[in-house]
Amino acid sequence: MTDTLRISGALSPVVTPFRADLSPDADRFVRQCRWLLSQDVGLAVFGTNSEANSLSVDEKVELLDRLVGSGLDPARMMPGTGHCALPDSVRLTAHAVKLGCAGVLMLPPFYYKGVPDEGLFRSFAEVIERVGDARLRVYLYHIPPVAQVPITLGLVERLLKAYPQQTAGMKDSGGDWRNTQAFLDAFGRDGFQVFPGAETFLLQGMRHGAAGCISATANVNPAAIARLHATWQGADADRQQARLDEIRAIFAKFPMIPALKAAIAHWSGDPGWATVRPPLVALAREQAGALVAQLEQAKFTMPGLRH
Amino acid sequence: MTDTLRISGALSPVVTPFRADLSPDADRFVRQCRWLLSQDVGLAVFGTNSEANSLSVDEKVELLDRLVGSGLDPARMMPGTGHCALPDSVRLTAHAVKLGCAGVLMLPPFYYKGVPDEGLFRSFAEVIERVGDARLRVYLYHIPPVAQVPITLGLVERLLKAYPQQTAGMKDSGGDWRNTQAFLDAFGRDGFQVFPGAETFLLQGMRHGAAGCISATANVNPAAIARLHATWQGADADRQQARLDEIRAIFAKFPMIPALKAAIAHWSGDPGWATVRPPLVALAREQAGALVAQLEQAKFTMPGLRH
Question: What is the distance between the terminal CA atoms of chain A, rounded to a whole angstrom?
Fold first, then answer.
């Protein structure tokens, strides 16, 4: 059931740069993605931390075209393509497959709450059927604190049975290791890839068969996260994990997306990176200063970021 | 601050008909809207009960064009135009204004949870500024059980101050009369129109200065709801309200949107009306039978629906 070469490792839900007029800045985006790849981190563009749901489908198609058109390897890409509206999910998913993306990270439709698994099954099934491409690899996106619509064991079981090729794995951003472990235990042997949604669970995940992690802070601390993924069986793995946790904990004191962008703005020397789209709000100057001060005190840097 | 002729009364978040292939059926939609207008109910198309967030922006533009192109009066329309992504909200709002719609019902961006009022203010402000049309009338949509992003008193105060012409009112679907009353008390004297989100609060609302109601069950029980709105000062108002509540309570035993569609399918004699888009699931045959049986026992009918 497993392909020989599935995407794995540390992936970044790449933050999306905006110009002052709030339009997406494809040039900055390509540069950032190129840097992340150079740090051995894959591109889970259009994730929660990408403000993907604040972008129109047209904007996402355009950004993805620019990435692939700039020579970045689609085999290292897992764009988020799940929307509330079926035609939107179908359109972006089909486009990602056409461009050769390794997989897509798919939110369930997230407006209606308390919907039955039968309805979620039909949602994913419709996308898979309508895209109708044997190359499609779907990673289900479980992020109950935000989407408020969970991916359950029963749903994955049904999808694996109906679409064994397409149902490739999941990202678990629930923050509960027992849930991640339950999915690994239930489906890991079938080649179903589980990505914890933060590097906090990277070492524990690797020891239990996870495929890597997809983490907000892989935007800012990519090389260290990728290194633990590559060397998790080494003697210093626990020390590496502790260091990752130390940096993550600093970011976690602030609103995550504005904090990621503030750090990139600081270390890239490009203040425009701090811009977010409403309903998010950029860090105030004092907050950004406090973040940078704490990171500097922890001897954090972003090597090679200054383009 | 109040326009001489704002939209008011009983409005229906019109359910959206789908063909068997799940595409929106504009012909059925136009017929249904025409029937609702004939029952003296206005058209809050693209609401929660319309499965609006399961439709692409293109589909909504097309349906709205068909309504207005069919001669239905845009002065009786308040389409839902709030999306997660700013460009989507701007596009559909601008289109609604261009077509002459009386107002738009605007969800806040609803993917990110716990966002500050500052971010929500900027979201609405960006839409108002970018649409840039003096005719725009925004009705803010407070539906915390679904959107999970509330409209607060402080947010309305800021919007009224910055955009007194455009900030026309709100729909309160929170189901808490004290909240509805708080908005009426705070802003009613400025001409800010408050629509309770169910006819359950219609009489109480009218007695406290509400503008009418926007209710799921106005899809199926329109004339009776419109009649109470028109005659709420009459001697039989409490009796009318009790009768509305009796019918509403039957629908409330079932998943609301599938139940509305099942009732329309039954009384229109058009079984295709039962179709919903995933992630919703149509009522099972036995459920639909139970709904109809209970409604018939309550002597409920839908006069004039059979097209």
Answer: 41
